[in-house]
């Protein structure tokens, strides 16, 4: 890369939380990565600095016009002490697709990946090694020009922060109740649903709150046009096993192109299990449920990896799947994918990227 | 209100820009208002402080999940030196409707209005008094809990910043070329299009850039479902004069409930001009254009007040309205509304709110 990454180490290090206290996205490591963009200079000044608050003008565009994109991936500590990343190049490719949609300047994917690797190496003592734990990595870009004109920002910050996390669900893999949303819409074709940008998540909070009040963990989003085709579940992609075939909504412009989604499809194909990416209506699901061919359902995403669906609440119906228990395919996919991610299972796909971990000594964290 | 507003005055005051250099949203006054929210304490610590950068944790939810809402209104200096606000209570009512949609806690509208009045009073020397100038007021709320879980924030900041602005267009009222957007969609029913939240603006930047590349200033948004009904123009509401009747899209859940829109409808009704709030298709507009009944078109919003549409680009057609000139109704509405806003014309509607301006001396700014 053109500009070397400057590194300023923290004078003191924070106390690390206990593994059973981690939760998700509550603790941050000792350092973070920052790189600035100015229209006249491009991306510049890549640096690793102590984790610290950032200072922004109150008129910064990110606060007012939401010009921001992000990514999420995980680093795992293997049993032999090495560090594995899962398909990180896919995250930066997608970050640039999101950038394109949000009128944010292109980021050099190699520089971003190098920054990520160096940051994780600096903070590698923060990668938990207990079962079901990992280091969650959050790259993001915010628009920080102070201007209230509605136009793309002239200035940006690209940052990476790291958070040691436990299993998304305390039980590891855990079937959830899902409310099929018929009032709120997450995204529509022509909008930003296929970009990983803040506004999509803000738009979903209300539905999630109302679903929680009805005893459900997440919502199943239907399309915004016909209000009948399945799109995503919460902030995950969604799969259904129908009569031996695994069906997931096709990428249609309003669905996020999930990296776990893509990996699950590749994994299923490698097992010679038929997979269909196509339009899937809620009506078809209800019918399959009633004729006994809806065998399993699960969400896929970086945070939970596989999230089995135990129950679907649709209008006045409650569709109980596999008696509310985790199905065998969900479990096998979870175990295989997390096995590959953590180095327990060999990776025949070349998905994992190993980082050097010279300073690591098991049990010293 | 329960808690008095603490005031910390700036030790030094900034040099004020020349009236002809103002532009829109480029300069900020000497002070700003802040109030914090914590789940356990509610909104607390209202204060006016010197305008300054704010410090946020990089994991603050506003950066990642876009939980933020805002408002925009203007304060005007009248010829006799008083300060007028235009329907500010409507802004805070709408802010709370936006809050409701974005799962942000309710804000006491009286406290917010009192904060706004005190802040403007403190910075009243910043209200420009030249023709076509005003003080733009930007209240906004950001989620500042540092947590990467996708859930409503436990902490928020409500802020008000002030920016002296010139006319949105240098010429005052100026017909613009509009590109009828058929690829991108701003919002859809069930989404957040009727809330004033950052994500809506982020979603529109790309279309605006592409329209600009085609020589157009803004886009005319069509609905996201049938892709044929007119919704908004840029970030303004839109009106058409068709055969003597003024037609504007009905509020349908994806259109912002504009305060200028509402005022224009009330003004037209007071003039006994027929107004219809209804579905309006692009096909109907093209047909009206060709049969000679499409008389005028204009956008309405706080920033430009009235923005006449001189030309519509739709597919391969260019619909030239009134030879690209400002129509008489657009001009009359602009002059009447800005006249009321600036105190030049009597306000029979009770829309304006006058602030005390004891320290003001004309020409001392």
Automatic annotation (TrEMBL), chains A, B:
Q: Mind telling me which PANTHER family this protein's record contains?
A: BRANCHED-CHAIN-AMINO-ACID AMINOTRANSFERASE (PTHR11825:SF44), SUBGROUP IIII AMINOTRANSFERASE (PTHR11825)
Q: Name one Pfam family in it.
A: Aminotran_4
SUPFAM superfamilies from the UniProt entry: D-aminoacid aminotransferase-like PLP-dependent enzymes (SSF56752)
Q: Which cofactor does it need?
A: pyridoxal 5'-phosphate
GO BP terms: namely: isoleucine biosynthetic process; L-leucine biosynthetic process; L-valine biosynthetic process
Q: Which UniProt keywords apply?
A: Amino-acid biosynthesis, Aminotransferase, Branched-chain amino acid biosynthesis, Pyridoxal phosphate, Transferase
Q: What is this protein called?
A: Branched-chain-amino-acid aminotransferase
The protein's annotated pathway? Amino-acid biosynthesis; L-leucine biosynthesis; L-leucine from 3-methyl-2-oxobutanoate: step 4/4; Amino-acid biosynthesis; L-isoleucine biosynthesis; L-isoleucine from 2-oxobutanoate: step 4/4; Amino-acid biosynthesis; L-valine biosynthesis; L-valine from pyruvate: step 4/4
Q: What reaction is this protein's catalytic activity?
A: L-valine + 2-oxoglutarate = 3-methyl-2-oxobutanoate + L-glutamate; L-leucine + 2-oxoglutarate = 4-methyl-2-oxopentanoate + L-glutamate; L-isoleucine + 2-oxoglutarate = (S)-3-methyl-2-oxopentanoate + L-glutamate
Q: Is Transferase included in the keywords of this UniProt record?
A: yes
Modified residue N6-(pyridoxal phosphate)lysine is at which positions? 196
The organism that produces this protein has a lineage beginning with: Bacteria, Bacillati, Bacillota, Bacilli, Bacillales
Native organism: Paenibacillus algorifonticola
Single GO molecular-function term?
L-isoleucine-2-oxoglutarate transaminase activity
Write the Enzyme Commission number(s) for this entry. 2.6.1.42
Q: Which family does it belong to?
A: Belongs to the class-IV pyridoxal-phosphate-dependent aminotransferase family.
